[in-house]
Amino acid sequence: MTISLLVVEPDQTVRDQLRAQLQMSQIAMSVLYSAAQLMNRLELECPSAILIRAEAPMQGERDALRRLRQAGYEMPVFVLSKSDEVVDKIVLFELGADDYIVDPVDLHELTARIRRAVQRANRTLCDAPEMREKISFGDYEIDFATRRLIRNGAEIALRSSEFALLKLFARNPMRLLTRPMVNSQLGRSESQNNSLDVAVCRLRTVIEDNPSSPKFIQTLRGRGFMFVPSPKQNEERPVIVRDRDSRGCAASALHLLQTAGLA
């Protein structure tokens, strides 16, 4: 599994030290200098985890963390700070931080914490039942607690990988999900784009009346995918341009499977 870490750190020396350690731990690192730009950056990439440098008064970091969680992003967030004040820790935990690390920290320990948190987050996303409200789209209903897809009272059989993909889409309605975002959230490497095409194609075959002209899982050419849970009849579909991922999905599924070594 490829882990990507977005590091919000203004100090170049610290960034260089982190990069060297992360490379040895096979964790890819991208950089942002200020938490104020975090939400804009997440429109371009969806890292496995985020590490934010926060120093008093931490207002910018608090605002960024609040907006991130309100927007529905659920990746692990680590806060690194020289402050050992309990009130700082409590406030950031309440805003959605997963871990608060007092600097200086041993970089081996830091990378171990990151790896463990990402593994746990991916396992929760893909495998664990969730006590959350059911989601309906079209004639379908997703039961997160029992991990079932139901249509008009009948259960629809899904592979575990298909359910994980559907759950990711359903939890992010009307939001652009780029290929790197999907791969990262499902714990896949970016080199697995071809097998992602296969997974999307399989899922469309299950839930779409016409997989070649999908209503629910729509493709934005050159950008990624968007889940549209309730397309209205006779309404023009928003911002959708078919490309090779949606055109002739059913007809090309076997070719994709063969290419990916799955058939």
From TrEMBL:
InterPro entries: CheY-like_superfamily (IPR011006), OmpR/PhoB-type_DNA-bd (IPR001867), Sig_transdc_resp-reg_C-effctor (IPR016032), Sig_transdc_resp-reg_receiver (IPR001789), WalR-like (IPR039420), WH-like_DNA-bd_sf (IPR036388)
Record Pfam families: Response_reg, Trans_reg_C
Chain ranges of the OmpR/PhoB-type domain: 132-229
Domain Response regulatory positions: 4-118
Keywords annotated in UniProt: DNA-binding, Phosphoprotein, Transcription, Transcription regulation, Two-component regulatory system
Residues annotated as transmembrane: none
DNA-binding region, residue intervals: 132-229
Keyword hit for Phosphoprotein: yes
Source species, domain of life: Bacteria
Entry protein name: Response regulator transcription factor
